[in-house]
Design goal:
The structure is a single chain. With about 350 residues, the protein is of the alpha+beta class. The chain contains eight helices and 19 strands. The longest helix has 30 residues. It starts with a helix and ends in a 6-residue tail after the last helix.
Length: about 350
């Protein structure tokens, strides 16, 4: 009987210990999602009211994103912002949530890392003073979130987005080139007033397509004379191609002098598109010369890149474009005349 009582007492003690440990465990895990206080309010719920975002890193990269009246965003006052990047950043700011506190023993280490390599994020809502300033640090050990600190707070936290496994640093971009849109032309049908295509050295291939009425486009030769008979459907289909045309990347491997040298060469093809507002976007394409490249099958040297070429936009910006994207645009006058001809 005494042994039974001892076993019962021992079981009760063990059960109480288990329950106590479980209570602490669930209490701690629940607290991760129910933190309160200004120093944990990382999210910006009303992102539609954000008018400007400033980001800066320790490598002296500075980015200012401004919302324009039409809802478009510009980068550093000069360039159209890549909308997908802006959307991702706004969604991130809206969904930020504390995942866990940083233990007191790691405060100093985490704060030091944020000070050394963190990204400063200022959020504005119409005034000259930011409504919120965040410091985005590195990811935690298991990459479930990032160490972050609100300006003026003393405690850093691990911050994440619920349902997303990974760190958030790539969403806070601080390189200007990564924010700039890579779009060249993006017109809906009817927004184009004129398209001019020139093939230097082969003037007989040159042509222009001009809008002469609502939904009406006519074909002209390289001398500006109207073409009497051509395939109307082919012309209209060609105009529709100038939608969502992008370059692959900025050319960042060469100096400004080398860029000027590329632009000074005779281009392969010249594309000039004028929209209904009179805005002109001109692109010249140039061969991309290869060095020390060989065909893996034949061993023969590859002198020209077969997949990519240089594009010079508005006689200034040198970018990398793909043949795959530009080949459909590289039409010749004869292509429209050689179809089933109609007046």
């Amino acid at each position: 009987m005494r042994n039974m009582k001892k076993r019962t007492t021992l079981f009760s003690i063990i059960l109480l210990i288990i329950l106590a440990v479980a209570a602490v465990y669930f209490s701690q895990n629940q607290s991760y999602s129910t933190f309160k206080g200004d120093d944990q309010e990382f999210a910006v719920k009303d992102t539609q009211n954000i008018t400007k975002i400033f980001l800066a890193d320790k490598n002296e990269n500075r980015i200012t994103l401004d919302r324009e009246n039409a809802g478009n965003w510009v980068v550093n006052k000069n360039y159209e912002a890549r909308q997908s990047g802006v959307t991702m950043l706004l969604e991130t700011l809206k969904e930020l949530k504390v995942y866990a506190p940083v233990s007191k023993s790691r405060y100093e280490t985490v704060l030091k890392k944020i000070a050394q390599s963190g990204i400063k994020v200022e959020i504005y809502k119409g005034s000259n003073q930011p409504t919120k300033t965040l410091y985005v640090g590195s990811s935690n050990m298991d990459h479930t979130g990032n160490y972050m600190l609100i300006d003026g707070a003393q405690k850093p936290y691990v911050v994440h987005i619920e349902g997303f496994h990974g760190y958030l640093t790539p969403r806070f971009i601080t390189r200007e080139a990564d924010w700039r849109t890579k779009n060249i032309w993006n017109y809906s049908f009817g927004e184009i007033a004129e398209i001019e295509i020139s093939h230097p050295g082969e003037p007989e291939k040159n042509f222009a397509v001009k809008k002469t009425g609502p939904g009406v486009y006519k074909l002209f030769d390289g001398k500006g004379s109207p073409v009497d008979r051509y395939d109307t459907a082919s012309v209209l289909s060609y105009v529709a191609l100038f939608k969502d045309i992008n370059f692959e990347s900025f050319e960042v491997t060469k100096t400004k002098a080398q860029h000027d040298s590329i632009a000074a060469q005779t281009p392969m093809t010249i594309y000039k598109v004028t929209d209904s507002n009179g805005k002109v976007r001109k692109v010249e394409t140039h061969k991309k010369i290869m060095k020390d490249k060989f065909d893996p099958e034949t061993g023969d040297p590859i002198e020209v890149d077969r997949d990519r070429m240089y594009g010079v936009i508005d006689e200034d910006l040198v970018v990398i474009v793909q043949y795959y994207v530009f080949d459909p645009l590289t039409a010749e006058l004869g292509e429209f005349k050689s179809q089933n001809l109609t007046p």
